[in-house]
């Protein structure tokens, strides 16, 4: 067989690299530059320094968007980290026709988010299924405004995200659960651990790695939520735009012939920095041992150097004394 | 990137100008009023008009123009209804704006400010043939010239769900805006919503004119929305909301185009405003079951005038041919033919409007005939809503609606909402 040329590997990764450069890196750098300008479509651009960022601080819509995104993270992360795990434990049981349930739980993942959100809108609108049912039972005097109340709208959207995400993360956990040894459970049971204790002390530590991954994925997705809120509020972000997410705000500020691209870019940069936080936290948590080792190694080397210096000084002192 | 593309657009514009000045001065050939030889390819773009009804019309127009002007090829393209603004922006940024293009006044304003459109007042000799209101819609503050030929005009009518109104004992639709609010209050107490939309600066202008007062919109070059009359209407809406007269969807969708019409189509709201072709084009298609219960009446106060125009790109490769074609599409005969297909709309030239019977199209539903009659009756007093040319754009209207929705829910005061809306518009108007 002929030996490959030195550039073959580079040639193979070239399409991927070009793709990333053109469609990810270049637009990203462009956004960073635009964030410091007053760019609008079809107009000359001038640099405005940090004006866009100072404007952010006084823009109440940015405050609302930030709150929405953070609430989304705070509620979605625990729900989507633990519910799929419980679901995975449930469908792992070896009982007849369990495959049917696994498939069913996975269904929402396949469906288009837009279509599902439209269905949810039918459910929750003032004349929708839920309000009709409530009225039928004579419960409220007037329809509950699920979709025109700031928090109800956000929670409807969160419900949709959780429902749609369950199946996906369940599959991740199903794969991970295969790695948790039966013998550990048996040993724990022999030591008198109940089901609850075994869940916390055996199952959870056993799937810690995937759990970290899942929570980061959810965290990043939750900060960037768009579709659910956009469809449920028909793009308005609810009264006053108070249920807008960060991405919705970026979209509404930057779109159109009159869009404020510079300002929208500044919000994008803030959003990017926000998504870095969970990534950093998990990076540290996952590589904790490596970081500890590195720190310990540095300490040892420092100690070693100090020792060597002390020895050299001693030798020098002795030499001086001898002289 | 932006800077470079702007420079590129600039260079192209200068080059186009240079080219036109080279060819200028030639004998004006028949048909077009612009100078220069009518030759070459003309691209023509319409907005959501490719269907069984309109396709033959446009194909025919292109063919007959080519026949009149040998050496000209017309390429007709149609863009889908959704995302037209983004499409236009993309075309303008990549310097590929079609030579002759259908633009609403707002889009044309942004493109004209960026120097992308030809000034038809200067380049065409027949701009005086078009209706004044339409020409005014394409004439902008701080910009010399007119940037489109008015093509088709529309207005807004009131549509009522008589079944719902009947539940409060009403046998005829309310005649004024104030009567409508009173009816809404009655219906609200029965658990029926009447108001399918929240007010906006543009709709407040109409409502206030119906009360016999005026809403300036712009005063001394600044947007002014916070007036006692506007506050009173928003406050009244807030009271009506408590009574259940405002549909929750109106608040949910505040700032979404056509949300009020979709809301009305569900059959749970008693009133909406919509264009003159609503019955045939929308209701009969989307909610035919509602047809028997819907009744149309004329718009309140000074009803809005909606204009669609045909603009010419400044970078057209054959400017003379482009202008000639734009004039051709919007000439009396072609506009009359077009209106025969578009029931409820009106031509953009003065002469074509003289005889409405010439374009009285065949309505499919009886109520559509009524709508067309009401529309024709109010075209004289209709005027472009807001303050044409002031730079007031959809994003400002949407922001205002969102704030007013909050005021209606009682989260902020009417004064705060209107003030926020006017501040936002003043801060974000593009120079």
What is the element layout, followed by pairings?
The complex is a heterodimer of chains A (323) and B (431).
Chain A: H1 8-34, H2 51-58, H3 60-92, H4 98-110, H5 113-124, H6 129-136, H7 150-177, H8 182-190, H9 195-206, H10 208-223, H11 227-232, H12 246-254, H13 261-286, H14 288-322
Helix pairs in contact in A: 2-13, 3-7, 3-10, 3-12, 4-7, 5-7, 8-9, 10-13, 12-13
Chain B: H1 2-23, E1 40-47, H2 55-68, E2 72-79, H3 84-93, E3 100-103, H4 105-113, H5 120-123, H6 132-137, E4 149-155, E5 157-161, H7 162-167, H8 177-189, E6 193-195, H9 201-210, E7 217-219, E8 222-224, H10 228-242, H11 248-252, H12 259-265, E9 269-274, H13 278-286, E10 294-297, E11 305-312, H14 319-329, H15 332-341, E12 346-347, H16 366-378, H17 394-409, H18 414-428
Parallel strand pairs in B: 1-2, 1-3, 6-9
Antiparallel strand pairs in B: 3-11, 4-11, 4-12, 5-9, 5-10, 7-8
Helix pairs in contact in B: 8-10, 10-17, 17-18
Question: Total number of helical segments of chain A?
Answer: 14
Low-confidence stretches of chain A at least 5 residues in length (pLDDT < 50)? none
Q: Into how many domains do the coordinates of chain B divide?
A: 2
Largest beta sheet of chain B: what is the strand line-up? 2-1-3-11-4-12
Cα end-to-end separation of chain A: 71 Å
Query: Helical amount among residues of chain B, as a percent range?
Result: 40-55%
Find the structural class of chain A using helix and strand composition: mainly alpha
Number of strands of chain A: 0
Largest sheet properties of chain B: 6 strands, mixed
Radius of gyration of chain A: 28 Å
CATH superfamily of the largest domain in chain B: Periplasmic binding protein-like II
> What is the name of the CATH class of the largest domain in chain B?
Alpha Beta
CATH architecture of chain A: Orthogonal Bundle
Report the radius of gyration of chain B as a whole number of Å: 23 Å
- SSE run of chain A: HHHHHHHHHHHHHH
Q: What is the oligomer described by this structure?
A: heterodimer
Strand content of chain B: 5-15%
Largest sheet of chain A: none
